[in-house]
Amino acid sequence: MATELSMLPTQVLAPFKGVKKVTIEEYFTSGHRTCQGCESALVMKLMAKAAGPRTIILGSTGCMYVANTTYYSTSWVVPWMHTQLGASGSAAVGTAAGLKALMRKGRIKQEPINVIAFCGDGGGADMGLSSISAALTYPEYNFLILMYDNESYANTDIQLSGMTPYGANTTFSPPGKARRLLHKRWKKNVAGMLAAGHPECRFVATVDASYPLEMMNRVRKALSIGGPTFIHSLDPCPKGWDYDPIQSHDLGELAVETGVWPLFEVEDGVLRFYGKSKAIAQGRKRKPVREYLLRQGRFAHFIEEDIEYFQTKIDQMWERWLLPGIAPFRLADDIKKALARSETEIESTA
Amino acid sequence: MSLATQPVPTADKEMLISGCAAIAQALRLASIDVVTAYPIRPYDTVMQAVAKLIANGELDAEYIVACSEHDQFEIVKHASAVGARVFCGSSGVGWMYAMEAIAVTPALRLPMLALVGNRALDDPGAFGCEHNDALCVRDLGWLLTWVDTAQEALDTALIAYRVAEDPRIFLPCAIGADGAFLTHSEALVKVPSQEKVDQFLPKYDRGDKLLHPDNPITVAPQVNEDWVMEIRKQNDGAMRRAPGVIQEAYADFHRIFGRQGGNPFVEEYMADDADVILLGQGTLSMPVKVGVRKLREQGHKVGFVRLKWFRPFPTQEVQDALRGAKAVGVIDRDYSFGSPNYGAVLYNEVRSALYDLPQRPHVISFICGLGGREVTLDSVTEMSEILLKAAKTGRMDQPNYWIGVRG
To answer: Do the interacting molecules here have an ipTM over 0.90?
Structure first.
């Protein structure tokens, strides 16, 4: 069946080889009203820069809609359209499908146009998960869905989302006299879930804008490889996480160094950890999560027991999961033995 | 013979097809670019027909089986923004599931065409025809029309594209088609030639509203109280221009295809000299016309008016059609719980439209045929008798009646 796929060509976006090689032009510029230290605004800027001028961007409801498109002062240089909170996947599919039909029928010039739909964690991991999952199964359309995850509904007053870390203080989970922790759900494992659940999707990655070059190059790869792709970005949020805006980058780095946020990409069925996560996966010691948690006011109500619980969960992810950050289960012993045996057989035949 | 195995008509030809299959033929002739399907009875037979057209190479479009109605409507919304001619549809609660996307489309000025195969909003479980699904868009800026026959379904789909995509309008359009009665009933349909359709229907040209790197606009920015009222008024302007554009389209349609002459907004049946008039939408016209004819044979001056366009509501045409009557009965296949006089939706619209007449007829609300229940000849007689009594005595016993209902 794959031979019947009619794909449009994509733009060839080679990786930027060093910060000094990054293009000067900006496609997300002044005019926005994001908070000081907003890492998601940086994600938008880097994403647009990485994609270049022949790009259409769709933005679902959230901070990066409301703050960036005040009428008469839009910050978008490239064409941009709003989509509904849970519709980033559908927006990407519809735009790509429309372009494809019109190019095939000769109604618009045939050329590779990047299509990027972004969503926040509320729009992506909560409401729009079904739409994104659906989108990743349409192999004939080229687009990237980027989820900027600031770990709450930050536009509407910092309410908890399915991506808010365990125990965090949000306006929907305030610590109180009777209940110290109102929020006891563990954060969803979205990139891993989408990579595992959509075997035809050629590129899924996690990124962190504290490492801008790595981040931009993953956007470029996602747009070049063809078909539907997905990137999950962890974005420190001064307002929602409650810290001095000057610390955004530090927190982005700490998230990786403590192992809370693993950086990885799954490209054509091959999983790679990259950046500091690669060293961690290879055994380098992680910083204690305490260093990450205690710099954020949203965890100020944590007692020792909560920090320990958090550390245990992160330790489990790296030490007990089949694939850290991706597959939160282990193999039963008999299966492990059987798989090890067949692997030996494969090696000996080779 | 199935629709799919029939050859593509190159000239006008007749086909025995359902209302949904007739619309699929219109989509083929309109050369749509993107279509999204999701299953729910009864509208989805149109998508089954589309799927066969795609599979057989008779229609060149991006055919996308979506994963929910919300996805379905969002996908075509965005395809329309980049200049594609699009189609989708739904029924009953499926239409409601898509309501967020449906609600925002008019302000985006996207001329999406959607079929509503009218269905009850179950629970409790009911597949049958009820108009409350489509009527949910009455205040949202959608053009909304109801069709009566498979022929009218095909014709109206072509007319709807022409009106919706007119740059003076740029509004989405919903076609109401009674579930089962029209969606699934087959009739002989004249399918026009491609040449004639091309003459009638220009290509969709979004102009300076096109979302494309050559035209880097920001669509749907944050306007808040600064501008949203002006934008609503602009949409109102488009809706107010719609009657004129609809009239132009029908005139051209009649000139090119030789059908759809007469008044585009209302169909009048024995209404000229009628003392009492029944008014309704969609396929109930069949039993009502038969009932009216029988009552006429008995010497009762009864008439029928079928409303074809609900939005824009043809106030003048409805006034003209009803002004001579002593009593008017509005038959609704829908209901509006707790509304004025505990009447149904169309009733209150018609009653409001008649308010400015110097001599107003009595207007009675008949709630009839809900959940797919048939509007029978007995029901037509019952409703007519209520109207005749009101006309004779000059007073109404009550403003509303549930017809053909137990208890």
So the answer is: yes
